[in-house]
Amino acid sequence: MTKYNIALLAGDGTGKEVTDEAVKVLNAVGEKYSIDFDFEPALIGGCAYDVHKTPLPQETLDIAKKSDAVLLGAVGDWKYDTLPPEVRPERALLGIRKELNLFANLRPAIVYPELTQLSPLKEEYVSGTDILIVRELTGDVYFGTPKGIEEKNGEKFGYNNMCYFESEIRRIAHVAFQVAMQRNKKLCSVDKANVLDVSRLWREIVADVSKEYPEVELSNMYVDNAAMQIIRNPKQFDVVLTGNIFGDILSDEASMLSGSLGLLPSASLSDNNLAMYEPIHGSAPDLKGQNVVNPIATILSAAMMLKYSFKMDVQSDEITMAVRKALKDGYRTADIMQNGMQKVGTSQMGDVIKSNILA
Hints:
This protein has helices at 15-33, 46-52, 58-65, 91-99, 123-126, 166-182, 197-210, 223-232, 244-255, 296-308, 313-328, 346-358, and strands at 2-11, 35-41, 69-74, 104-110, 130-136, 148-152, 155-159, 186-191, 217-222, 239-242, 265-269, 275-279, 331-332, 342-343. By secondary structure, it is of the alpha/beta class. It has a ten-stranded mixed β-sheet, with helices on both faces. Strand 8, helix 7 (197-210) and strand 9 (217-222) form a beta-alpha-beta unit. Helix 1 crosses helix 10 (296-308) and helix 8 (223-232) packs parallel to helix 9 (244-255). The two termini are 22 Å apart. The mean pLDDT is 95.
């Protein structure tokens, strides 16, 4: 029996509830295809701070580094808002990305036919939308130095440094072009090259890498225009390549095309075969323990794990189809509830998707 070790980092808030359902679905896949998924839990975020006084304990990093893949729920809770910035739960995300060298973030934004009415945009604009945003994850302004707040000219002065090495741009560009080759061979690189020197370097290096992928149609777009075009005409995009801060903003914007953050997964890849998978939504501490949060994003993150880490395209597609069938059959959690549909809780949605796999 094939065996895979998965580091299970449930995190805070509703993180455990959604990861429980992903585990349930993965175990159904394992049962059907004789695969053994071995889950090793570890603390991250606020719950880790409560025990270890750090949001990212070394023990958690050790478990993650020796695993075949990492499944993350979410981190954060309002009760930690008064902690110093360096020990806030959110710092764990930046830390684990850096420690595991998770430089490539893949965020799909898909509008399902069954849910087009939930989108804030008109159906004719969003129907058929299928975008994959490839976001560089370990560079840019979030990690640039120097940074800080100090006194300057008699007042407080805050600064962060937006910076990229050529090598960092090249490796994320290769990921984006390789993904584009597997899709519709169309890639839009988003930057701010009309203003920022770092974006001019970005555009130069992306153009150079594109020579290795002559079949992929490359276009460039300024980030402000891209933000507008995602709303104006989202179907013009297939693969979008961009840096860390622009990708953070644009992927959240694109996620709302579907009508709910609870639907969309993500994958964060490294160049050493280790990857982390997580829903793009937060921990929703106000919903903890109520069995109402949507587990689909986390379940689809598990599907991405099968595809990208374990090369199980058939099993990955089977999870996706099981989710689509649940939606087609009218099952809805509170965030995507529609008239005439059957409202279910977190665990019930997981049960439905599991049963679709085992059917």
